[in-house]
Amino acid sequence: MIDYARLSHDFSALGVTFGQTVLLHSSLSSLGHTEGGADTVVAALLGLLGDGGTLVVPSGTSGNSDTSPFYRAAVAGMTPEEVAAFRARMPAYDPGSTPSVLMGRIPERVRTLPKAYRSAHPLTSFAAIGPQADEITREHARDCLLGELSPLSKLYDAKAHVLLLGVGYDRCTAFHLAEYRYRPDPPQRSYRAVVDDGDGRAWCEFVDVHVDDADFWRLGADFEVAGDVRLGWVGAAQARLFALTDAVDYATGWLTTHRTPATY
């Protein structure tokens, strides 16, 4: 049984401390049997971060988009009539109530805390709690999933840390910020989502950088060799803690070398 005291000890040994801003990517099941589940994990982290620290999690949604892998899997095998009916039922994104999709139980717990803030992007929102939560999640531009007008850029400026808890570098959202920086004209594509901007349910479409995490596992392996990554165990989960600025700066150079226009 993994309890609050064990989690606090393990997070502290890894390097989580008072006043940090931490972007967390996590797998609750990887920890082993945890007393109190996601509630206890979040409480242990917030206890270490204290009143001066901010905890941030991805709280993205893909159930309201027809340009997501989630949607393609959902409609696979449907007739055109069934697809039309499915699209008609897709809910508009509401920052206050729309559950995250495929993010895990720990981010959902953070998202639903009474004092949590959440960004307004209909696909790639972030939720946060702590003194910097409002600033980090505010003004997330619709045509900027994970770039300069997203919470990731604010996390970079805030010198945040990334905590990978039982997940690999393929889940490291910070690397996406480098996709906006590694070249002046990164590949772009169209995105669509259901929103409600005050006039009822409607579809929106915008063009933004073609974000792609297919090579993040290789990028992460190289970063771990070259970078300052703290490795440890939290319960039964392997964990990594590192500076978000280091990860983004390294990824910007790595992508410049390893991605070419022919990649797309």
UniProtKB/TrEMBL annotation:
User: Which EC class is this protein assigned?
Assistant: transferase
The domain of life is Bacteria
Pfam families referenced in this protein's UniProt entry, alphabetically: Antibiotic_NAT
Looking at the keywords, is Ribonucleoprotein present?
no
- Which chemical reaction does it catalyze? a 2-deoxystreptamine antibiotic + acetyl-CoA = an N(3)-acetyl-2-deoxystreptamine antibiotic + CoA + H(+)
For this UniProt record, give its keywords in alphabetical order, as a comma-separated list. Acyltransferase, Antibiotic resistance, Transferase
Q: What is its EC number?
A: 2.3.1.-
Describe the family membership recorded for this protein in Swiss-Prot or TrEMBL.
Answer: Belongs to the antibiotic N-acetyltransferase family.
The protein depicted here goes by the name Aminoglycoside N(3)-acetyltransferase
Supply the source organism's classification.
Answer: Bacteria, Bacillati, Actinomycetota, Actinomycetes, Streptosporangiales
